[in-house]
Structures are given as structure tokens and as C-alpha cells.
Amino acid sequence: MASTTSGDVLPTGGRIFTTMPDMCFIPEFVFGGLVWILVASTRIPQENPLGWVMFVSVFCFVMTTLWLFIFLCGANQSSIWPSLDAGYHFVAVVFYLSASVALAYITLTNATPLAAFPSPELLKIYRLDISAVVMSYIATLLYFIHAIFSALRWKRS
């Protein structure tokens, strides 16, 4: 496996799948998409703040896709890209962490009626919410790992 310590040039093309921070692109893409799908498949009342969770998951999904294509095409060879990479991933960490906490809180508050009146529909929504919380925290962890390694790469450049 190639290391990010060899040179200060960002990888391009297929090499992004062999360097540590950039190997996180595909898992970020997958888990972010799962959060988006799981939150979108539940019933959302009007007072529910899951709009922020949807914004974060869609925003990070689209930006990670764009970031992946920029890296694949080799358009990331300017000296500003290491700082942009670290900055974007730290913003994604803050966004996903705030969305994960909000999603966990909403899931917890929605569990109260479930204990009193269990129904198959409420149980299904609760399980989808739990899955979304788990995927959201995994996506947060992946973005955090990517941000740390991107910051280390930025410091070396």
C-alpha cells in the first residue's frame, strides 16, 4: 500500500484507491448514501428536525462524489488542494456529527410511544431510525479519519 509520506503531491487516477485518506472515499460514499436512504424511507412529522440530517447526507454525498471525480481526473494538482481537502473533510465531520446527534435524539424520543403502543409500522420505522443512526456515526468516523489524514498530508505539503 502506498503511503502518503512519499511526496507532497496528491494522488490522481487509480492511485487514490491506494493512499490512506483517499481510500475512505468509497466507504464515505456508501455509508452517506445509506443514511440518506434510511432517513428518506421513514415517516417524518413536521416538527422533526430530520431536514438537517437529510441536508447533511445529501450535501456530503454530492460533494464526496464531486471530490472523487476531481481526484480521479487529476484536477487536484494545484498547491491549494491539500488544504481544500482537509477543510472539506473537517466541515463534513462537523456536519455529520451534528446530524448524528440530532438523529440519535429524534430516534430516542420516538422510542417512547413505541414502548406504550407497539405496532408493526412503528417498530419498522424505529428499526430504520436505529439503522440510520448507526450508519450516520460510521460515516462520521470515516470522514473524521479522512480529515485527520488529509490534515497530516496538508501539513507535509
User: Can you summarize the main beta sheet?
Assistant: none
| Order of helical and strand elements | HHHH
Please give the domain count.
1
The Cα radius of gyration reads 18 Å
Instruction: List the total number of helices.
Output: 4
Low-confidence stretches: 1-8
Which percent range describes the beta-strand content? under 5%
Query: N- to C-terminal separation?
Result: 20 Å
Secondary-structure content class: mainly alpha
How helical, in percent, are the residues? over 70%
Q: Mean pLDDT score, rounded?
A: 82
Principal-axis shape: elongated
List how many beta strands DSSP finds: 0
Query: What is the oligomeric state here?
Result: single chain
How would you sum up this structure, described in words?
By secondary structure, the chain is mainly α. It has one domain (19-156). Helices cover 72% and strands 0% of the residues. The protein contains 4 helices and no strands. The longest helix is centred in the last third of the chain and has 37 residues, at 120-156. It is elongated. Residues 16-155 form the MARVEL domain. Pfam families: MARVEL. Belongs to the MAL family. Keywords: Lipoprotein, Membrane, Transmembrane, Transmembrane helix. This is Myelin and lymphocyte protein.
Question: Which tags fit this structure?
Answer:
157 residues; mainly alpha; 4 helices; 72% helix; 0% strand; disordered N terminus; lipoprotein
Structure in a nutshell:
The protein is mainly α and 157 residues long. The chain has 4 helices and no strands.
What is the topology?
Blueprint: H1 25-40, H2 50-73, H3 81-116, H4 120-156
Helix pairs in contact: 1-2, 1-4, 2-3, 3-4
